[in-house]
Write a structure and sequence with these properties.
TPR_rpt, single chain, mainly alpha, TPR-like_helical_dom_sf, two-stranded antiparallel sheet, globular
Length: about 1050
């Protein structure tokens, strides 16, 4: 370097003496000059000696610099949390000791480091950390409409650039006076001013982010002020707590919260919950609401021991709350570190005993829900004979008892006689029991014997799987199978404690419904709030199954609708018509269809049972025993000849079997038997008329359907193909249906009002040249009524939405010209109210499948269904995953998008759902097999350097994903034996012997039922020889 060339060091300012610091000009007042600035300056100079540092620390200063560090960091690897004093965030990002020009940079800062940036400079948002990665970094522009000038009309050219002289102002002293220089000169080196767009014909739109952030901040201030002014208002506290998520998302790179974000949000909410509990006073209902929210958030923030202690304190204060007990049972059953089968079962018994002894009577539906959870956990832990025996004993003792005064001692005699029990072959029920009856002899195939040629785990898999498949029904002392298994034979003492859990006032129909839910079968067509809570409980969903689809020559829309309707988990309001379309799969339970059929026969034939169980039996036989359904219907109608529900079910059986003439005869005969002038037609009569009309519509006979509709007494003319009904007849029926609907609404009979409105809309549709908008407008009147009576989200409103979707489906499949926008605009408001209804979702997805480029289904599910993941039902997640799988790669669906949905589902409401975890593990297994069977891997030769190829690395990653998913499922489902057995079945190639041995130890430690002994001396001897550790 030459002598006349300055080095960069020459530009560095020389340090000034310490005494001259006060003489420098200050940009702020002297009070703004803090000791922190002096300390920053001292750090740029030579470090003082330890003696000087100690002297400075002891001076009268608010702080000192500790350069020795914290010993706890070396001891624990991080700060000791117990020595950190409690603090509250304050200062909006400014740091105590730093000047006001410095502020914490939230984008660059992490949980380990804090970055400081100038507060006055607005940081440019980075592309990957923007709130929405799809949003452009530039501000939106809008065109400015030109003013109307008459002289512009005479121009026959387009002015590309304005080169006229600019107007000069008094302040423009530095401007160029050259008239020929254009305003936008390409030779300029300065960019346009940020406040003005480069295009003179455009203006900037307003900043949406700033508006949203300001609105969220104002809302938070308003809610906080409301809690101070009205501290006793629980709704105000809950609104403030719910709004904290929106506050946390401010300036976040993504709308999705990470695990650490959720934990931080939980801490914030817990503090607010604690403050609210102190200030609301003695308000039992409000305290329950707050405690439920507090304990829900504490699951993310507190350790298990602290949370368990808090649960005990809360239950002592509110022992009569069913919802709190259900949440506590969720906590106990899903806590992997402390779960043991016997301990959990004891807590279930304590829960029922406490609720039964409380002054507030527990509802039968709430009690049966707890028993459902208990028996389901018993079944999944491997004690399947006991769980089935419990339901056999409950139904026999409560429904089929010989007399009202029959004692439990008499039932003990019946059980110990070992005659055929309900569901088993030749069973007649306790009513028909005779002491001289012969004990039942159930036939079992012999179990597999130990094969010395098999390895330890191969033998375990074969014998355990075989025993699990065969040993489902409760064993008897006379059985010649599993004689040494103490859990196979179920004595009266085993089921007696469960009989005492169900009081006398529980309706028998609810008991049968609970058994159907236990078996994973569809609910009965009877609206009730308990159906939603039972069938949507994640703990009760053990298996997902889809019925096979018939590849017919139907239209693309019909095929798409069938595919999307074939969702593995369904959620909707069950009706009689929908019941006869169900698959009645028994894959989630080890019981065969013969057992279910025999049980339903005994229940339906009981004189005290409801007609709906006979209807359910016919629907079940239609799917599994179609040739026997006619005989069963004939027997049921002979016992109950006046049941309109059973006649309607029989007509639907013939209609589904393709016997349209027989179905027409059944409907016509029953309608003709009714009184000519019925003042108040029953819902069963309207349902019968509805089934008759739709029987013709499904065959495409619209004119026949119209004649049937205007002939409610079953007397249409013989020739209905060409002629049209008289206008007077149509008007008379329209008036009558309107009266029925109005009277039903006054009587709060929503089912009748919905049926009559549906028939009115169908009448208008068939008589107005199939004008769907007019018919839908008639439906909207009933929707407005539900809204005005605060029942917009009720089960009745959801049922009404399903009737609307049925009309839309028919119109879409039969109308010559269909406007997809009509279906879309009608369904979107309904989906906003019922985002988990799979009937509405399937129709919407089928309608939008023709426009996959827009992908509105994803958008609707993202904004309505998947937005609040904690409130999302399992059926909603199942449909989202099912839809993503159906779309295919051409439409943008990949294994990564499907995996992302699975992860979101198991991190939210599906965290403890066995069916969801099994499907997730099987999905990862399918991806692993696909990679293993790929040609790229099979045809690949080993590399010379011994390194793995990319294909082999992908296989290893897929194998690790299977293992990670399996272990995550095992941690969240500590009671579910079937998930643990996947390590020995479908995923056996993923795990080594030592890992399988550890899974066996988990089965033993959690006290699950294992048929093959894995805890004896022989098993431990094998483990020691192999070197397996626990």
């Amino acid at each position: 370097m030459s002598a006349n060339t300055s080095s960069f060091a020459s530009f560095r300012p020389k340090p000034k003496p310490a005494q001259e610091l006060s003489k420098e000009p200050q940009p702020h007042s002297q009070s703004d000059r803090t000791s922190k600035q002096k300390d920053q300056h001292r750090r740029t100079s030579k470090s003082p000696s330890p003696q000087i540092r100690e002297t400075d620390a002891s001076a009268n200063k608010p702080y000192f610099s500790d350069r020795r560090g914290d010993e706890d960091v070396l001891r624990y690897g991080t700060l000791n949390r117990y020595e950190i004093p409690p603090y509250r965030r304050y200062g909006h990002g400014f740091v105590l000791g730093l000047p006001l020009q410095q502020k914490i940079d939230r984008e660059l800062s992490t949980d380990k480091k804090i970055y400081v940036s100038p507060a006055t400079r607005r940081r440019q948002q980075r592309l990957l950390t923007d709130k929405s990665t799809k949003r452009s970094g530039e501000r939106a522009l809008r065109l400015v409409k030109a003013g109307g000038d008459a002289s512009d009309l005479n121009k026959d050219y387009v002015l590309l650039s304005a080169t006229g002289k600019r107007k000069r102002h008094d302040s423009d002293t530095d401007e160029d006076d050259d008239e020929g220089t254009p305003e936008f000169d390409y030779r300029g080196i300065e960019e346009p001013k940020s406040a003005e767009p480069a295009d003179p014909d455009a203006q900037y739109e307003s900043d949406v982010d700033v508006t949203f952030d300001a609105e969220a901040t104002r809302t938070n201030s308003r809610l906080a002020r409301s809690t101070k002014e009205h501290p006793e208002d629980v709704s105000g506290w809950l609104a403030l707590i719910a709004h904290q998520e929106a506050m946390l998302k401010l300036e976040r790179p993504s709308a999705e919260l990470t695990v650490s974000d959720k934990a931080h949000l939980a801490d914030i909410r817990i503090d607010i919950y604690g403050e609210a509990l102190k200030k609301i006073g003695k308000h039992p209902e409000g305290q329950l609401q707050l405690y439920k929210g507090l304990l829900k958030e504490a699951e993310r923030a507190w350790e298990g021991a602290k949370l368990a202690s808090k649960w005990k304190d809360v239950l002592v204060k509110h022992p009569e709350s069913v919802e709190l007990w259900m949440m506590y049972l969720d906590f106990v059953q899903s806590r992997f570190t402390t779960f043991k089968y016997e301990d959990c079962r004891a807590i279930f018994f304590k829960c029922i005993e406490t609720l039964s002894a409380s002054t507030q009577n527990i509802s039968p539906t709430g009690l049966l829900h707890i028993i459902l959870r208990l028996t389901s956990m018993t079944y999944e832990a491997g004690y399947q004979e006991l769980s089935v025996a419990i339901w056999q004993a409950l139904i026999e003792f409560r429904i089929l008892r010989p007399a009202e005064d029959a004692t439990i001692d008499a039932f003990e005699m019946f059980w110990d006689s070992e005659v055929a029990r309900i569901g088993e072959p030749q069973s007649k029920g306790w009513k028909q029991y005779s002491p001289s009856g012969e004990p039942a002899s159930l036939e079992f195939a012999p179990l597999l014997e130990k094969d010395s040629s098999d390895s330890f785990f191969e033998d375990f898999k074969k014998r355990e799987t075989e025993a699990t498949r065969q040993l489902v029904l409760p064993g008897r002392t006379s059985d010649d199978i599993a004689e040494d298994d103490a859990f196979h034979t179920i004595l009266f003492d085993d089921v007696a404690p469960y009989l005492k859990l169900v009081p006398e006032h529980v309706p028998s129909g609810l008991l049968v419904e609970a058994f159907l839910c236990f078996c994973g079968l569809p609910p009965i067509p009877k609206s009730g709030a308990h159906q939603q809570s039972w069938w949507s409980d994640p703990f009760l969903q053990r298996h997902w199954s889809s019925s096979p689809l018939n590849e017919d020559e139907s239209s693309n829309f019909v095929q798409s609708l069938n595919h999307f309707s074939n969702c593995p988990s369904k959620s909707f309001q069950m009706t009689t018509e929908l019941l006869f379309d169900q698959s009645f799969s028994t894959s989630s339970i080890g019981l065969g269809t013969d057992f279910i059929r025999q049980l339903l026969k005994l229940v339906a034939s009981d004189p005290s049972s409801e007609d709906v169980f006979g209807e359910y039996l016919l629907a079940f036989e239609l799917r599994n025993y179609p040739n026997e359904a006619f005989k069963t219907a004939k027997r049921l109608l002979k016992a109950r000849p006046s049941s309109l529900r059973l006649y309607n079910a029989y007509g639907l059986v013939e209609s589904r079997l393709g016997n349209s003439d027989k179905a027409d005869q059944v409907f016509r005969t029953v309608l003709a038997m009714q009184p000519a002038k019925s003042e108040n037609p029953t819902p069963q009569l309207l349902e019968l008329l509805d089934s008759w009309v739709w029987d013709a519509l499904r065959r495409g006979e619209r004119n026949t359907a119209l004649w049937r509709l205007v002939s409610p007494h079953g007397n249409p003319p013989a020739e209905t193909a060409q002629s049209q009904p008289d206008e007077t007849l149509v008007d008379s029926l329209r008036t009558r249906l309107a009266e029925i609907s109005e009277q039903a609404l006054l009587a709060q009979d929503h089912a009748t009002a919905i049926l009559s409105t549906s028939l009115s809309a169908l009448l208008l549709y068939l008589t107005s040249s199939y004008d769907a908008p007019r018919a839908l407008n008639l439906h909207s009147h009933l929707s407005i009524w539900f809204t005005s009576h605060a029942t917009t989200y009720s089960s009745s409103a959801e049922l009404h939405a399903q009737f609307i979707s049925r009309l839309l489906t028919f119109h879409t499949t039969h109308a010559p010209i269909v406007k997809p926008a009509l279906t879309r605009s009608t369904l979107e408001p309904l989906l906003s109210r019922f985002p988990d209804n799979t009937l509405l979702l399937a129709l919407y997805a089928a309608n939008e499948s023709r426009f996959s480029i827009d992908d509105r289904v994803r958008g609707v599910m993202q904004h309505t269904a998947l937005q609040r993941t904690e409130e999302r039902s399992i059926a909603g997640w199942a449909f989202a995953i099912h839809y993503e799988m159906r779309r295919g790669e051409l439409a943008g669906s990949t294994e990564h998008s499907i995996r992302a949905l699975y992860k979101r589902a198991v991190e939210s409401s599906g965290k403890h759902c066995p069916a969801l975890w099994k499907a997730y593990i099987q999905f990862e297994l399918a991806q692993l097999r696909r990679l293993q069977e790929s040609r790229q891997l099979q045809n690949k030769k080993p590399r010379r350097d011994g390194k793995k190829s990319k294909a082999e690395i992908r296989v290893e990653d897929a194998r690790q994903r299977v293992a990670d998913t399996f272990y995550a499922g095992l941690r969240n489902l500590p009671w579910c034996k079937e998930v643990a057995m996947l390590a020995f079945g479908e995923a056996e190639d993923v795990f080594g012997d030592e890992e399988k041995w550890r899974v066996c130890r988990v089965l033993v430690e959690k006290e699950m039922r294992v048929f093959v002994e894995v805890d004896d001396d022989a098993a431990w001897e094998v483990a020691r020889e192999k070197g397996w550790t626990v």
